[in-house]
Amino acid sequence: MINQKRKATLDNQGGAVVVELETERLWLRAWKAEDREPFFRLSSNPDVMEFFPDILTKAQSDTFIDNCIRKFETQGGWGLWAVELKQSGEFIGSVGLNVPNIKFPFSPFVEIGWRLDKPFWGQGYTYEAARRIFDFAFTEIGLEEVVAFTTVSNYRSESAMKKLGMVRDEKTFLHPGLEENHPLREHVLYRLRRSDFV
């Protein structure tokens, strides 16, 4: 795997400096204005958003990207990156690290998350990007642990977490951002410690 790192300044977006990461097939990079339309397309796709509370409107999708850009500044240049195929330059989704704004039963923590457009599922892109992000999180940020979580019925995402070497907590938890009777409220939690990353 290529371990190159580059930095990019977000023009007209607060001037935050973003650490950009490279893998064999991908750039994990700063968000661009032209990412907004394809990100909205994937975030309004019911298949992609099956295990999220709802599909996003254009305004919600843009707000998500705006929040990602702000967090690059507050989190020191890392966050939820836009993912680009190196070969074609095509935007395929987002993968990265996040510190949630709401309190969870296991706070404080840094989570890894991903959202790729459906045509790019099943090709190893999530695994490839996440491995590079774990390496960055443990060796360059110095984190001791990264977590991931999803609703109990999202077996596809759980499979990715297991493949990445993450270990599931025995107990489930109720997502504090979802209302009491929401069908997706019960979540599983996976962890990866720096000492277990190989």
From TrEMBL:
InterPro entries: Acyl_CoA_acyltransferase (IPR016181), GNAT_dom (IPR000182), N-acetyltransferase (IPR051531). Pfam families: Acetyltransf_3 (PF13302). This is GCN5 family acetyltransferase. The lineage of its organism: Bacteria, Pseudomonadati, Pseudomonadota, Gammaproteobacteria, Enterobacterales. The keyword Transport does not apply. GO terms for molecular function: acyltransferase activity, transferring groups other than amino-acyl groups. Residues 26-185 form the N-acetyltransferase domain. Keywords: Transferase. PANTHER family: GNAT FAMILY, PUTATIVE (AFU_ORTHOLOGUE AFUA_3G00765)-RELATED-RELATED (PTHR43792), N-ACETYLTRANSFERASE DOMAIN-CONTAINING PROTEIN (PTHR43792:SF1). It comes from the Bacteria.
